[in-house]
Amino acid sequence: MHASHSLEVYKFGGTSVGSSAAIQKATSIVKATQSRLIVVVSAMGGITDLLLETAKKAATGTDSDIDFAVSEFVRRHREAVENLLADSRRATELRQIIEKSAVEFQSICKSLAVLGEVTPRILDVSVARGERLSAMIFQSFLQEAGVDSMVLDATEILFVEKRFSNLIPNREKCLEAANKRLTPALDAGRVVVVPGFIATGPEGELLTLGRGGSDYSATLLAEAVGATSVTLFKEVDGFLTADPRFVADARVVPELTYREAAELAYYGAKVLHPRTIIPLLANRIPLTIKNSLAPDFPGTKVSDDCHAVDFPVKALTAMVNQSMITVTGNGMLGVPGVASKTFTALANVGISVSVITQASSESSICFVVSSEQAKAAQRCLNEAFAFERSARLIDDVHVEQQIAVLAVVGLGMKGTPGIAARVFSAMSRKKINILAIAQGSSELNISVVLRESDVKSALQELHGEFRLEKLRPLPERVEKHVDLVTLGSGQIGRSFIRQIIGQKHFLAQTLGVSTSCIAISDRSGPVLNM
Ligand code: ASP
Ligand code: MG
Predict the structure, then answer these.
(1) Is pLDDT at 350 greater than 80 in this prediction?
(2) Ligand 1 centroid – CA 208 distance (Å)
(3) What would the pLDDT profile of 24-71 be if each residue is shown by its tens digit?
(4) 273 CA closest ligand 1 atom index
(5) Using a 6 Å cutoff on CB, does residue 14 contact ligand 1?
(6) Residue whose C-alpha is closest to residue 141's, from 293, 29, 219
(7) Considering only CA atoms, which residue is closest to atom 6 of ligand 1?
(8) For residue 390, is pLDDT > 60?
(9) What is the DSSP annotation of 281-310?
(10) From the CA of 129, which ligand is nearest?
């Protein structure tokens, strides 16, 4: 039984449970904790894609090798079992479970091929096996390694409702289930392993939380049990200042506030599922993102307790595959209700909008939606404004494809003048055409709408402009002590000592280093201060 009162949630992503070596590493991380612990796991890396693609291809009749996919699925999981559990009884059981799951998937795919279509529900049921198997394998190895543990299926403890295409957690049900199922096991000192990504929907059906959804599973569980912290173990060292595929000298951002992290996740920083932060807010649960292969690296910490840094902008992110829609017409001038009609029409068909801008001349409103929804948005607006269009008050609704929204994020922008100017001069240096801009009054984010083809150079230029390559990981906050002896106390020696004294506080706060000058020596001899 663990004496500790702290209760943590760890989540291991696909890569962190993607092989037997990774699972061993993850297990040693679990063994090292003193807290009561919930462990959320993703499917082994690549498995979700394999399952999704195979099922989709089977339905569309695209030349798909179902049998090959199934054998790949079996091979990956069996390999982990062989390496981790060898000939134990549990290994035999797991082999049977894997086999059964594979056969079931195979027959799903074969029926899809006959039916020629696939529904979201069938896809959800198809992919869920990835997380479930990975949870079972991981927990079996934990047990083998001497950690008292159990698997609790996510569909028994996470409940969501549906609104349009969005899933909204049913907090009451989650809380009740957590109290009944999770807390007693944790209190008994058991590590509870939960498959991520899946939950139970309003009709009792199995649902998935969207790609990368295990992050969200972890924070939802943390909220339900009142966890003291959440750690997401991923294949990256933390939240990066920009996508490293675009910006070679991207760095790990050591600390973010909840609002910064939410903003970045929303604007397409793939590191986090966009809703991950929400469940943390009520109880201000701190979140850390770490690399499971380098757990000593401090990673990124998301909390309220952010130390002031000299970086007003902390990270950049770009949402690609977007379309910009413009509603224009001279007849809009001074006519109330155009904006409301526009967004109500969109809301009615469940389309969500990101950046919105309207010029004060009121002759156009423009906004951004994902490209998949662009056609539907155009159609519904053309219908909503049928009368205005025939009366020539509004022109046709215009769609521009291959657009991106680049977000410049950092709470330090607030009250720092000139950030927007720097963003725009950086863009003009690169001759990038800005299509629209928006800044919320929170001054946390400047969003720039631009063409997709300009994203790379915009990111590179802005990264340099805000010197983001200079961000450094947070030093471990262990106290280190440095005793200084200066030889010589002329100009240089004296100003050095003055600087050390002046920086004492900074060194202690930021680097965790305390300093004292124990001796100064010059031509007239040493002065000791021991
Ligand atoms: N396995 C799912 C995915 O790849 C969920 C997750 O890993 O968080 O999206
Ligand atoms: Mg994954």
Answers:
(1) yes
(2) 9
(3) 999 999 999 999 999 999 999 999 999 999 999 999 887 668 999 999
(4) 8
(5) yes
(6) 29
(7) 212
(8) yes
(9) HTTT--EEEEETTSTTS--EEESS-PPP-S
(10) 1
